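FORM 7B: Structural annotation worksheet

SECTION A. Query
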Amino acid sequence: VLAGSPELCPQASQPNLAGLPPVRVNEDGIPIEAVLIFYEPVDWSAELQVIVDALKGGCPLGSGTCGVGEQAVTVYASNPDFLWQAAYAVPRF
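SECTION B. Predicted structure
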């Protein structure tokens, strides 16, 4: 999202996408249906800005009119074990 729409968080460094196409959330017309958190970033500033904007919804992103206690999308967070298993033998997801 940040690679395709850097204006969402201009102070963030450009992510390494490893060949993935950038998503231009304000131009492509593709709605964000959910937020998936698969890791804990070192610096949450850019990630939190995009998450908050997605929670508010709307186009442009973040212009939604959700009321107090409402959100436009669901947020799912997982333990890092979702991507790779740690030393503990039992999966935590």
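SECTION C. Observations
The beta strands are 34-37, 74-77. Residues 45-56 form the longest helix (12 residues).

SECTION D. Sign-off
Analyst initials: ____
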